[in-house]
């Protein structure tokens, strides 16, 4: 069994861990880290279990926030970042960051949770479209599953808020491992991260017009962490503006990590 596939980039020394969302790869968070942050940081970006180039056991019992956090802890320790890392997590990655903070096996200087999709209970209704996609991929070839989902009530519900967000969900069918890895889209929504236990400098970036990552979830997570909340542009309707807001939030977080301020 191999470990997580990952990349280490950046010209600086400040340890920065990037965690992608469900069905994504490390390319997703790397896309919001600008050149200024790259000059300041040593950036560790893994493909998580059942994602990207990582080749690890994908049986359902191992597709959980606890196991994903354990995988990341092992990698961060191997890369000698365990004694003070800043963490940026997107969607599922935000949940894994929260799980890392609750486990307290790494020294986390600060966290940025971007568009969190989980509170602290399994099967949140906002993730029902992803579960539906997973079950379609279980039962049908990817092209047929895509057509069925595009005609489903779950797709229509998302499109009712944002056509762009609904179209983005169709990207789940384009992943080369989509059919083989359908279980991740059922197992992870069926699990949940652990609520906060110890204080960690935290900032939350939410966005409007995103029914899969509702703003009220970001508000709730921010309140539970006692964190600052920034409301940014809609991810799917205004991608460039959203990424710019995310990059700015990363810089605020790095300043907070450097100074030890309670809020980012």
Note down, in words, how this protein is organized.
- The protein is α/β, with parallel strands linked by helices and 264 residues long.
- The chain has 2 domains: 5-121 and 192-259, Alpha/Beta hydrolase fold, catalytic domain (Rossmann fold, 3-Layer(aba) Sandwich), CATH 3.40.50; 125-173, no CATH class.
- The protein is built from 11 helices and 7 strands.
- It has helices at residues 27-30, 35-40, 65-78, 92-103, 128-139, 142-150, 153-161, 163-169, 184-187, 215-225, 239-259; strands at 5-9, 14-19, 41-47, 85-90, 108-114, 202-207, 228-232.
- The chain has a 7-stranded mixed β-sheet with strand order 1-3-2-4-5-6-7, with helices on both faces.
- Strand 4 (85-90), helix 4 and strand 5 form a beta-alpha-beta unit.
- Helix 7 packs across helix 8.
- It is globular and about 50 Å long.
- 47% of the residues are buried.
- The mean pLDDT is 95.
Helix content: 40-55%
CATH superfamily of the largest domain: Alpha/Beta hydrolase fold, catalytic domain
Instruction: Give the termini distance in whole angstroms.
Output: 38 Å
The helix count comes to 11
Outline, from the CA principal axes?
globular
Keywords:
264 residues, alpha/beta, 2 domains, seven-stranded mixed sheet, 16% strand, globular
């Amino acid at each position: 069994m191999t470990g997580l596939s990952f990349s280490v980039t950046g010209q600086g020394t400040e340890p920065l861990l990037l965690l992608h969302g469900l069905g994504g790869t490390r390319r997703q968070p790397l896309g919001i880290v600008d050149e200024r942050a790259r000059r300041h940081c040593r950036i560790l970006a893994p493909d998580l279990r059942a994602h990207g180039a990582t080749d690890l056991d994908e049986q359902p019992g191992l597709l959980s926030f606890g196991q994903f956090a354990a995988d990341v802890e092992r990698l961060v320790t191997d890369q000698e970042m365990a004694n003070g890392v800043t963490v940026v997590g997107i969607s599922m990655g935000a949940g894994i960051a929260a799980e890392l903070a609750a486990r307290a096996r790494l020294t986390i200087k600060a966290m940025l949770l971007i568009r969190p999709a989980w509170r602290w209970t399994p099967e949140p209704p906002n993730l029902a479209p992803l579960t539906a996609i997973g079950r379609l991929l279980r039962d049908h070839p990817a092209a047929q599953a895509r057509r069925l989902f595009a005609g489903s009530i779950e797709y229509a519900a998302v499109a009712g808020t944002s056509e762009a967000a609904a179209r983005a969900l169709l990207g789940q069918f384009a992943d080369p491992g989509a059919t083989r890895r359908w279980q991740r889209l059922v197992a992870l929504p069926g699990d949940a991260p652990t609520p906060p236990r110890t204080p960690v400098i935290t900032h939350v970036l939410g966005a409007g017009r995103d029914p899969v990552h509702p703003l009220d979830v970001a508000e709730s997570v921010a309140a539970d962490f006692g964190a600052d909340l920034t409301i940014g542009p809609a991810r799917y309707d205004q991608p460039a503006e959203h990424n710019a807001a995310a990059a700015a939030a990363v810089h605020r977080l790095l300043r907070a990590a450097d100074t030890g301020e309670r809020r980012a």
